[in-house]
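Chain A, query sequence.
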Amino acid sequence: MHDVIRDMALWVACEHGSKPKFGVFDSTALSSIYASDQLAKWREAERLSLWHSTLPISLGEPFSLNLLTMMVGKTGLNKFPKDYFKSGQALKVLDLSHNANLVEIPAEIGELTNLQYLNLSHTRITELPIELNKLKRSRCLMLNFIGPLTIPKMLMSSLSSLQVFSELMILFRSFIQRPYYYDEILFLGELECLEDLKDISIVLFSFSSLEMLLNSTKLQRRIKYLRLEFFSPEYSPLSLNNWELTRHERIICNLQNLEVTKCGIPNLTWLTNAPNLRSLKIVGCDSINAIVSEDFGAGEIGEVNWQVLGSLETLELRNLPRLRSICQSALRFPSLKNVNVYSCNALTNLPFDSDSARSLERIVGETCWWNSLDWEDQSTKDVFSSRFQDIFDYSHTGEMYPYRVEIKLFPCFSRASFFLAAKCGVFLNWL
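Chain A, predicted structure.
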Protein backbone atom coordinates (compact mmCIF):
# COMPACT_ATOMS: atom_id res chain seq x y z
CA MET A 1 0.00 0.00 0.00
CA HIS A 2 1.32 3.44 -0.91
CA ASP A 3 2.34 5.54 2.10
CA VAL A 4 -0.05 8.38 1.21
CA ILE A 5 -3.02 6.01 0.86
CA ARG A 6 -2.00 4.24 4.06
CA ASP A 7 -1.79 7.47 6.06
CA MET A 8 -5.09 8.72 4.67
CA ALA A 9 -6.83 5.44 5.48
CA LEU A 10 -5.54 5.49 9.04
CA TRP A 11 -6.54 9.15 9.41
CA VAL A 12 -10.11 8.34 8.34
CA ALA A 13 -10.21 5.24 10.56
CA CYS A 14 -9.14 7.40 13.52
CA GLU A 15 -12.08 9.76 12.94
CA HIS A 16 -10.05 12.38 11.10
CA GLY A 17 -7.19 12.07 13.55
CA SER A 18 -9.18 13.08 16.61
CA LYS A 19 -9.11 9.61 18.20
CA PRO A 20 -5.92 7.56 17.81
CA LYS A 21 -7.65 4.17 17.71
CA PHE A 22 -5.27 2.63 15.19
CA GLY A 23 -1.49 2.76 15.49
CA VAL A 24 0.65 1.27 12.73
CA PHE A 25 4.38 1.84 13.19
CA ASP A 26 7.44 0.61 11.38
CA SER A 27 10.99 1.64 12.26
CA THR A 28 10.70 5.08 10.63
CA ALA A 29 7.29 5.88 12.07
CA LEU A 30 8.28 4.72 15.54
CA SER A 31 11.39 6.92 15.41
CA SER A 32 9.24 9.97 14.74
CA ILE A 33 6.85 9.03 17.53
CA TYR A 34 9.72 8.74 20.02
CA ALA A 35 11.29 11.98 18.74
CA SER A 36 8.06 13.98 19.06
CA ASP A 37 7.19 12.54 22.47
CA GLN A 38 3.81 11.37 21.15
CA LEU A 39 4.01 7.81 22.50
CA ALA A 40 1.66 8.56 25.39
CA LYS A 41 -1.03 9.58 22.91
CA TRP A 42 -0.85 6.24 21.16
CA ARG A 43 -1.05 4.30 24.42
CA GLU A 44 -4.82 4.85 24.21
CA ALA A 45 -5.11 3.10 20.84
CA GLU A 46 -7.40 0.10 20.49
CA ARG A 47 -5.27 -1.58 17.82
CA LEU A 48 -1.49 -1.35 17.57
CA SER A 49 1.12 -2.71 15.18
CA LEU A 50 4.85 -2.32 15.88
CA TRP A 51 6.60 -3.90 12.94
CA HIS A 52 10.16 -4.19 11.72
CA SER A 53 11.62 -1.77 14.23
CA THR A 54 15.36 -1.53 14.80
CA LEU A 55 14.70 0.51 17.92
CA PRO A 56 14.49 -1.14 21.34
CA ILE A 57 10.84 -1.84 22.06
CA SER A 58 9.82 -0.62 25.50
CA LEU A 59 6.82 -2.46 26.90
CA GLY A 60 7.03 -1.10 30.40
CA GLU A 61 3.26 -0.80 30.73
CA PRO A 62 0.24 -1.89 28.67
CA PHE A 63 -0.72 0.58 25.99
CA SER A 64 -4.41 0.67 26.85
CA LEU A 65 -6.95 -1.08 29.01
CA ASN A 66 -9.14 -1.13 25.90
CA LEU A 67 -6.49 -2.60 23.59
CA LEU A 68 -8.15 -5.16 21.28
CA THR A 69 -5.37 -6.00 18.82
CA MET A 70 -1.61 -6.00 19.36
CA MET A 71 0.88 -7.01 16.69
CA VAL A 72 4.62 -6.86 17.41
CA GLY A 73 6.88 -8.41 14.79
CA LYS A 74 10.49 -8.36 13.57
CA THR A 75 11.67 -6.40 16.59
CA GLY A 76 14.29 -6.87 19.28
CA LEU A 77 11.69 -7.98 21.81
CA ASN A 78 12.97 -10.87 23.95
CA LYS A 79 10.62 -10.96 26.92
CA PHE A 80 7.70 -9.19 28.54
CA PRO A 81 7.83 -7.24 31.80
CA LYS A 82 6.35 -8.92 34.84
CA ASP A 83 2.57 -8.57 35.13
CA TYR A 84 2.41 -7.02 31.65
CA PHE A 85 -0.68 -9.00 30.62
CA LYS A 86 -2.64 -8.66 33.85
CA SER A 87 -4.55 -5.60 32.62
CA GLY A 88 -5.19 -6.90 29.12
CA GLN A 89 -8.57 -8.53 29.59
CA ALA A 90 -9.96 -6.77 26.50
CA LEU A 91 -7.24 -8.09 24.16
CA LYS A 92 -8.59 -10.38 21.42
CA VAL A 93 -5.70 -10.60 18.94
CA LEU A 94 -2.04 -11.03 19.94
CA ASP A 95 0.49 -11.57 17.15
CA LEU A 96 4.10 -11.90 18.30
CA SER A 97 5.38 -13.74 15.24
CA HIS A 98 8.82 -13.15 13.68
CA ASN A 99 10.48 -11.96 16.88
CA ALA A 100 13.67 -13.99 16.66
CA ASN A 101 14.84 -13.07 20.17
CA LEU A 102 11.62 -13.90 21.98
CA VAL A 103 12.38 -16.96 24.14
CA GLU A 104 9.53 -17.15 26.64
CA ILE A 105 5.95 -16.19 27.27
CA PRO A 106 5.04 -15.25 30.85
CA ALA A 107 2.48 -17.26 32.77
CA GLU A 108 0.35 -14.11 33.07
CA ILE A 109 -0.76 -14.62 29.47
CA GLY A 110 -3.46 -16.78 31.02
CA GLU A 111 -5.04 -13.55 32.28
CA LEU A 112 -6.04 -12.62 28.71
CA THR A 113 -9.39 -14.29 29.11
CA ASN A 114 -10.87 -12.72 25.95
CA LEU A 115 -7.96 -13.65 23.69
CA GLN A 116 -9.13 -15.37 20.50
CA TYR A 117 -6.06 -15.28 18.22
CA LEU A 118 -2.49 -16.05 19.34
CA ASN A 119 0.43 -16.26 16.90
CA LEU A 120 3.88 -17.22 18.23
CA SER A 121 5.33 -18.41 14.91
CA HIS A 122 9.00 -17.79 14.04
CA THR A 123 10.07 -17.13 17.63
CA ARG A 124 12.47 -19.03 19.90
CA ILE A 125 9.98 -20.03 22.54
CA THR A 126 10.79 -23.47 23.93
CA GLU A 127 7.79 -24.11 26.15
CA LEU A 128 4.17 -23.03 26.36
CA PRO A 129 3.02 -22.07 29.86
CA ILE A 130 0.31 -24.32 31.27
CA GLU A 131 -1.62 -21.14 32.09
CA LEU A 132 -2.69 -21.02 28.45
CA ASN A 133 -5.37 -23.50 29.49
CA LYS A 134 -7.32 -20.51 30.83
CA LEU A 135 -7.85 -19.15 27.31
CA LYS A 136 -11.27 -20.73 26.91
CA ARG A 137 -12.24 -18.34 24.10
CA SER A 138 -9.13 -18.94 22.01
CA ARG A 139 -10.06 -19.83 18.42
CA CYS A 140 -6.71 -19.76 16.63
CA LEU A 141 -3.26 -20.88 17.83
CA MET A 142 -0.30 -20.54 15.44
CA LEU A 143 3.02 -22.18 16.42
CA ASN A 144 4.81 -22.48 13.10
CA PHE A 145 8.60 -22.81 12.72
CA ILE A 146 9.49 -22.40 16.36
CA GLY A 147 11.74 -25.43 16.65
CA PRO A 148 11.67 -27.85 19.60
CA LEU A 149 8.63 -26.87 21.63
CA THR A 150 7.25 -28.41 24.80
CA ILE A 151 3.46 -28.38 25.00
CA PRO A 152 2.16 -29.46 28.42
CA LYS A 153 -0.08 -32.51 28.42
CA MET A 154 -3.80 -31.76 28.37
CA LEU A 155 -3.18 -28.14 27.41
CA MET A 156 -4.64 -28.52 23.93
CA SER A 157 -7.71 -30.41 25.12
CA SER A 158 -8.50 -27.54 27.51
CA LEU A 159 -8.83 -25.01 24.66
CA SER A 160 -12.47 -25.87 24.11
CA SER A 161 -13.21 -23.08 21.58
CA LEU A 162 -10.18 -23.71 19.36
CA GLN A 163 -10.99 -23.74 15.63
CA VAL A 164 -7.57 -23.40 13.96
CA PHE A 165 -4.31 -25.03 15.09
CA SER A 166 -1.03 -24.93 13.18
CA GLU A 167 2.35 -26.31 14.25
CA LEU A 168 4.67 -26.71 11.27
CA MET A 169 8.19 -27.20 12.54
CA ILE A 170 11.75 -26.72 11.34
CA LEU A 171 13.04 -29.70 9.39
CA PHE A 172 15.73 -31.88 11.06
CA ARG A 173 15.97 -29.79 14.22
CA SER A 174 12.50 -30.75 15.40
CA PHE A 175 12.92 -34.44 14.59
CA ILE A 176 16.21 -34.83 16.43
CA GLN A 177 15.08 -33.19 19.66
CA ARG A 178 11.44 -34.22 20.05
CA PRO A 179 10.36 -37.78 21.05
CA TYR A 180 7.48 -37.77 18.60
CA TYR A 181 7.03 -41.49 18.15
CA TYR A 182 5.79 -41.85 21.73
CA ASP A 183 3.81 -38.69 22.41
CA GLU A 184 2.23 -37.49 19.17
CA ILE A 185 -0.57 -40.07 19.32
CA LEU A 186 -1.62 -38.63 22.68
CA PHE A 187 -1.36 -35.17 21.17
CA LEU A 188 -3.58 -36.17 18.22
CA GLY A 189 -6.04 -37.55 20.74
CA GLU A 190 -6.24 -34.14 22.41
CA LEU A 191 -6.90 -32.47 19.06
CA GLU A 192 -9.50 -35.09 18.20
CA CYS A 193 -11.58 -34.31 21.28
CA LEU A 194 -11.92 -30.58 20.44
CA GLU A 195 -15.43 -30.34 19.01
CA ASP A 196 -15.05 -26.89 17.41
CA LEU A 197 -11.69 -27.57 15.75
CA LYS A 198 -11.97 -27.20 11.96
CA ASP A 199 -8.46 -26.66 10.64
CA ILE A 200 -5.27 -28.55 11.60
CA SER A 201 -1.78 -28.08 10.13
CA ILE A 202 0.77 -30.46 11.63
CA VAL A 203 3.88 -32.60 11.17
CA LEU A 204 3.82 -36.35 11.94
CA PHE A 205 6.82 -38.59 12.49
CA SER A 206 5.39 -42.11 12.86
CA PHE A 207 3.31 -44.65 10.95
CA SER A 208 1.10 -45.20 13.96
CA SER A 209 0.20 -41.51 14.02
CA LEU A 210 -0.67 -41.54 10.33
CA GLU A 211 -2.78 -44.65 10.82
CA MET A 212 -4.60 -42.93 13.67
CA LEU A 213 -5.29 -39.95 11.44
CA LEU A 214 -6.50 -42.11 8.55
CA ASN A 215 -8.81 -44.04 10.86
CA SER A 216 -10.27 -41.01 12.64
CA THR A 217 -13.24 -39.41 10.91
CA LYS A 218 -12.84 -36.24 12.98
CA LEU A 219 -9.16 -35.77 12.19
CA GLN A 220 -9.72 -36.50 8.49
CA ARG A 221 -12.30 -33.74 8.27
CA ARG A 222 -10.02 -31.26 10.01
CA ILE A 223 -6.55 -31.84 8.57
CA LYS A 224 -5.60 -29.12 6.08
CA TYR A 225 -1.80 -29.17 5.89
CA LEU A 226 0.03 -32.39 6.65
CA ARG A 227 3.76 -33.01 6.59
CA LEU A 228 5.15 -36.52 7.04
CA GLU A 229 8.83 -36.79 7.96
CA PHE A 230 11.34 -39.56 8.63
CA PHE A 231 8.98 -42.54 8.61
CA SER A 232 10.99 -45.78 8.82
CA PRO A 233 9.46 -49.19 8.05
CA GLU A 234 10.93 -50.81 11.16
CA TYR A 235 8.86 -48.48 13.34
CA SER A 236 5.59 -49.41 11.66
CA PRO A 237 3.36 -51.68 13.74
CA LEU A 238 1.05 -52.09 10.74
CA SER A 239 2.11 -51.95 7.11
CA LEU A 240 0.38 -49.35 4.97
CA ASN A 241 0.95 -51.66 1.99
CA ASN A 242 -2.14 -53.63 2.98
CA TRP A 243 -4.21 -50.75 4.27
CA GLU A 244 -7.60 -51.09 2.55
CA LEU A 245 -9.41 -48.06 1.17
CA THR A 246 -12.96 -47.96 -0.09
CA ARG A 247 -13.98 -45.22 -2.44
CA HIS A 248 -16.65 -43.65 -0.26
CA GLU A 249 -15.05 -44.10 3.15
CA ARG A 250 -12.21 -42.37 4.90
CA ILE A 251 -12.53 -39.27 2.73
CA ILE A 252 -9.93 -36.71 3.83
CA CYS A 253 -12.01 -33.82 2.61
CA ASN A 254 -10.13 -30.87 4.11
CA LEU A 255 -6.54 -31.83 3.24
CA GLN A 256 -5.14 -29.21 0.86
CA ASN A 257 -1.37 -29.46 1.29
CA LEU A 258 0.81 -32.52 1.87
CA GLU A 259 4.59 -32.73 2.23
CA VAL A 260 6.34 -36.09 2.58
CA THR A 261 10.04 -36.06 3.49
CA LYS A 262 12.44 -38.98 4.10
CA CYS A 263 9.67 -41.51 4.68
CA GLY A 264 9.97 -45.25 4.09
CA ILE A 265 6.61 -45.71 2.38
CA PRO A 266 5.96 -47.46 -0.96
CA ASN A 267 3.08 -45.30 -2.22
CA LEU A 268 0.45 -42.73 -1.35
CA THR A 269 -2.61 -44.42 -2.82
CA TRP A 270 -4.76 -43.12 0.02
CA LEU A 271 -4.51 -39.69 -1.61
CA THR A 272 -7.18 -40.84 -4.08
CA ASN A 273 -9.53 -40.06 -1.17
CA ALA A 274 -8.26 -36.49 -0.76
CA PRO A 275 -10.45 -34.65 -3.29
CA ASN A 276 -9.34 -31.14 -2.29
CA LEU A 277 -5.58 -31.69 -2.28
CA ARG A 278 -3.94 -28.68 -3.95
CA SER A 279 -0.23 -29.11 -3.30
CA LEU A 280 1.80 -32.34 -3.09
CA LYS A 281 5.52 -32.34 -2.33
CA ILE A 282 7.55 -35.55 -1.95
CA VAL A 283 11.27 -35.34 -1.17
CA GLY A 284 13.95 -37.92 -0.43
CA CYS A 285 11.73 -41.00 -0.04
CA ASP A 286 13.95 -43.88 -1.18
CA SER A 287 11.22 -46.55 -0.94
CA ILE A 288 8.41 -44.92 -2.85
CA ASN A 289 7.80 -46.52 -6.26
CA ALA A 290 4.43 -45.00 -7.15
CA ILE A 291 2.17 -42.20 -6.04
CA VAL A 292 -0.97 -44.20 -6.84
CA SER A 293 -0.24 -47.92 -6.54
CA GLU A 294 -0.49 -50.33 -9.47
CA ASP A 295 -2.93 -52.34 -7.32
CA PHE A 296 -5.39 -49.49 -7.71
CA GLY A 297 -6.65 -51.12 -10.92
CA ALA A 298 -6.78 -49.51 -14.33
CA GLY A 299 -10.51 -50.13 -14.57
CA GLU A 300 -11.15 -48.43 -11.25
CA ILE A 301 -8.98 -45.48 -12.20
CA GLY A 302 -10.76 -45.20 -15.51
CA GLU A 303 -14.10 -44.77 -13.77
CA VAL A 304 -12.97 -41.95 -11.50
CA ASN A 305 -10.07 -40.31 -13.31
CA TRP A 306 -11.89 -36.99 -13.36
CA GLN A 307 -11.89 -37.06 -9.55
CA VAL A 308 -8.49 -38.51 -8.61
CA LEU A 309 -6.20 -35.59 -7.70
CA GLY A 310 -8.70 -33.35 -9.44
CA SER A 311 -7.88 -30.28 -7.33
CA LEU A 312 -4.10 -30.66 -7.48
CA GLU A 313 -2.36 -27.45 -8.59
CA THR A 314 1.30 -28.06 -7.69
CA LEU A 315 3.23 -31.34 -7.85
CA GLU A 316 6.86 -31.46 -6.68
CA LEU A 317 8.92 -34.66 -6.83
CA ARG A 318 12.55 -34.58 -5.73
CA ASN A 319 15.23 -37.21 -5.06
CA LEU A 320 12.99 -40.26 -5.47
CA PRO A 321 15.33 -42.92 -6.94
CA ARG A 322 12.73 -45.74 -7.12
CA LEU A 323 9.74 -43.77 -8.32
CA ARG A 324 8.54 -45.43 -11.53
CA SER A 325 5.02 -44.12 -11.81
CA ILE A 326 2.72 -41.37 -10.67
CA CYS A 327 -0.27 -43.39 -11.79
CA GLN A 328 -0.63 -46.25 -14.29
CA SER A 329 -3.50 -44.58 -16.14
CA ALA A 330 -3.78 -41.08 -17.54
CA LEU A 331 -5.54 -38.64 -15.21
CA ARG A 332 -7.43 -35.47 -16.04
CA PHE A 333 -5.62 -33.10 -13.64
CA PRO A 334 -8.03 -30.25 -14.48
CA SER A 335 -6.43 -27.86 -11.96
CA LEU A 336 -2.74 -28.73 -12.36
CA LYS A 337 -0.54 -25.70 -13.07
CA ASN A 338 3.02 -26.57 -12.02
CA VAL A 339 5.04 -29.79 -12.07
CA ASN A 340 8.61 -29.85 -10.71
CA VAL A 341 10.72 -33.00 -11.04
CA TYR A 342 14.35 -33.44 -10.01
CA SER A 343 16.49 -36.55 -9.59
CA CYS A 344 13.70 -39.03 -10.32
CA ASN A 345 15.54 -41.01 -12.99
CA ALA A 346 13.33 -44.11 -12.77
CA LEU A 347 10.23 -42.10 -13.67
CA THR A 348 9.85 -42.79 -17.39
CA ASN A 349 6.30 -41.63 -18.07
CA LEU A 350 3.78 -39.05 -16.94
CA PRO A 351 0.05 -39.81 -16.50
CA PHE A 352 -0.96 -37.46 -19.29
CA ASP A 353 -2.88 -37.87 -22.52
CA SER A 354 -4.19 -35.29 -24.96
CA ASP A 355 -7.08 -34.44 -22.59
CA SER A 356 -4.94 -34.05 -19.48
CA ALA A 357 -3.78 -30.98 -17.57
CA ARG A 358 -5.19 -28.30 -19.84
CA SER A 359 -4.43 -25.65 -17.23
CA LEU A 360 -0.78 -26.67 -16.96
CA GLU A 361 1.62 -23.73 -17.18
CA ARG A 362 5.00 -25.43 -16.84
CA ILE A 363 6.89 -28.63 -16.22
CA VAL A 364 10.32 -28.00 -14.72
CA GLY A 365 12.97 -30.72 -14.75
CA GLU A 366 16.25 -31.91 -16.20
CA THR A 367 16.47 -32.03 -19.98
CA CYS A 368 18.06 -35.50 -19.95
CA TRP A 369 15.11 -36.82 -17.91
CA TRP A 370 12.59 -35.17 -20.19
CA ASN A 371 14.15 -36.62 -23.32
CA SER A 372 13.99 -40.14 -21.85
CA LEU A 373 10.22 -40.09 -21.18
CA ASP A 374 7.85 -42.46 -22.97
CA TRP A 375 4.66 -40.99 -24.40
CA GLU A 376 1.30 -42.39 -25.47
CA ASP A 377 1.68 -40.72 -28.87
CA GLN A 378 3.64 -37.97 -30.58
CA SER A 379 0.82 -35.42 -30.41
CA THR A 380 0.69 -35.69 -26.60
CA LYS A 381 4.45 -35.25 -26.40
CA ASP A 382 4.27 -32.17 -28.62
CA VAL A 383 1.58 -30.58 -26.45
CA PHE A 384 3.57 -30.93 -23.24
CA SER A 385 6.99 -30.24 -24.74
CA SER A 386 5.95 -26.63 -25.25
CA ARG A 387 5.48 -26.31 -21.48
CA PHE A 388 8.76 -27.88 -20.42
CA GLN A 389 11.54 -25.75 -18.94
CA ASP A 390 14.98 -26.98 -18.00
CA ILE A 391 15.53 -26.60 -14.29
CA PHE A 392 18.75 -24.63 -14.67
CA ASP A 393 17.22 -22.19 -17.14
CA TYR A 394 14.16 -21.80 -14.94
CA SER A 395 16.16 -21.05 -11.79
CA HIS A 396 17.82 -18.09 -13.54
CA THR A 397 14.64 -16.42 -14.76
CA GLY A 398 14.19 -14.46 -11.55
CA GLU A 399 11.00 -16.33 -10.72
CA MET A 400 10.40 -18.27 -7.54
CA TYR A 401 12.77 -21.20 -7.24
CA PRO A 402 10.81 -24.22 -8.44
CA TYR A 403 11.33 -26.28 -5.31
CA ARG A 404 10.00 -23.67 -2.96
CA VAL A 405 6.33 -24.34 -2.32
CA GLU A 406 4.71 -21.56 -0.37
CA ILE A 407 1.52 -22.49 1.44
CA LYS A 408 -0.67 -19.58 2.47
CA LEU A 409 -2.88 -20.63 5.34
CA PHE A 410 -4.60 -17.29 5.55
CA PRO A 411 -5.16 -14.41 3.14
CA CYS A 412 -2.20 -12.04 3.04
CA PHE A 413 -2.96 -8.55 4.27
CA SER A 414 -0.60 -5.64 4.67
CA ARG A 415 -0.38 -4.33 8.22
CA ALA A 416 -2.48 -1.28 7.39
CA SER A 417 -5.01 -3.41 5.54
CA PHE A 418 -5.32 -5.58 8.64
CA PHE A 419 -6.51 -2.68 10.72
CA LEU A 420 -8.79 -1.27 8.05
CA ALA A 421 -10.40 -4.67 7.66
CA ALA A 422 -10.68 -4.92 11.42
CA LYS A 423 -12.41 -1.56 11.46
CA CYS A 424 -14.99 -2.96 9.03
CA GLY A 425 -15.21 -6.23 10.93
CA VAL A 426 -14.19 -8.39 7.96
CA PHE A 427 -10.80 -9.80 9.04
CA LEU A 428 -11.42 -13.28 10.39
CA ASN A 429 -14.20 -13.52 12.95
CA TRP A 430 -12.22 -12.68 16.03
CA LEU A 431 -12.12 -8.89 16.18
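The chain is about 20% helix and 15% strand. The domain at 3-424 is CATH 3.80.10.10 (Leucine-rich repeat, LRR (right-handed beta-alpha superhelix)).
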